[in-house]
Design brief:
The complex is a heterodimer. Chain A is mostly beta strands. In chain A, 0% of the residues lie in helices and 54% in strands. Chain A contains no helices and 12 strands. The radius of gyration of chain A is 13 Å and the shape is globular. Chain B has no helices and 11 strands. In chain B, strands 2, 4, 5, 6, 9, 10 and 11 form a 7-stranded mixed β-sheet that branches. In chain B, strands 1-3-8-7 form a 4-stranded antiparallel β-sheet, with no helix packed on it. Chain B is globular, with a radius of gyration of 14 Å. Classes of the chains: A mainly beta, B mainly beta. Chains A and B meet through strand 6, strand 10 and strand 11 of A and strand 5, strand 9 and strand 10 of B.
């Protein structure tokens, strides 16, 4: 079975600094999709960024970018210029062509003013 | 589109009672997922449907849980009888299949269930 591992249960970052959240996954598939979701205290699950495995270029969305290392099965999220509103639980997710999503256990990010 | 709509937002019920959670997916999405979120177990997939057909219900904890999708715009998750350990936040999510451009899951606001 596919697994998604987030080895950092908690992380903290100073406001305006940069932080990187780690994610690794296990798969034998070559065609799949990776995602980072943000869950603030409101509990709403919000998509932060998406990466297609067939694309070599790392995805970016404003202050959010990923480092996708397909051979290493690694998919880290970098948040630049951290803001207080970035404080949340972050989940890494994997979706294969068979269409089920697999989520990691989450990383709780604290932003220190 | 209003997004994935779940009801109720909060539910408090007594042990032994039947609980029904409802979900309206985004129009046009052909996948629907039910998740349960707790502090201890994180986000667990309970069941998912493709074109209204259940594909994998191996995450359903026991026979007290059942889910239906009678049409493309409505799904229910039922717990009968409910137990205190069922207390959690239940999410419904929908998506296109991976052949479409937008492959992510869109989540509802969740239902916080408390069984006392």
């Amino acid at each position: 079975a596919q697994t998604v591992t987030q080895s950092q249960p908690e992380m903290s970052v100073q406001e305006a600094e940069t932080v990187t959240l780690s994610c690794t996954y296990d798969t034998s598939e070559s065609d799949y999709y990776l995602f980072w979701y943000k869950q603030p205290p409101s509990r709403q699950m919000i998509l932060v960024i998406r990466q297609e495995a067939y694309k070599q270029q790392n995805a970016t969305e404003n202050r959010f970018s990923v480092n996708f290392q397909k051979a290493a099965k690694s998919f880290s999220l970098k948040i630049s210029d951290s803001q207080l509103g970035d404080a949340a639980m972050y989940f890494c997710a994997y979706r294969r062509a068979g269409n089920q999503f697999y989520f990691g256990t989450g990383t709780s990010l604290t932003v220190i003013p | 589109d209003a997004g994935v709509i779940q009801s109720p937002r909060h539910e408090v019920t007594e042990m032994g009672q039947e609980v029904t959670l409802r979900c309206k997916p985004i129009s046009g999405h052909d996948y629907l997922f039910w998740y349960r979120q707790t502090m201890m177990r994180g986000l667990e997939l309970l069941i998912y449907f493709n074109n209204n057909v259940p594909i994998d219900d191996s995450g359903m904890p026991e026979d007290r849980f059942s889910a239906k999708m009678p049409n493309a715009s409505f799904s229910t998750l039922k717990i009968q009888p409910s137990e205190p350990r069922d207390s959690a936040v239940y999410f419904c999510a929908s998506s296109f299949h991976t052949g479409q451009k937008n492959t992510e899951a869109f989540f509802g606001q969740g239902t916080r269930l408390t069984v006392v």
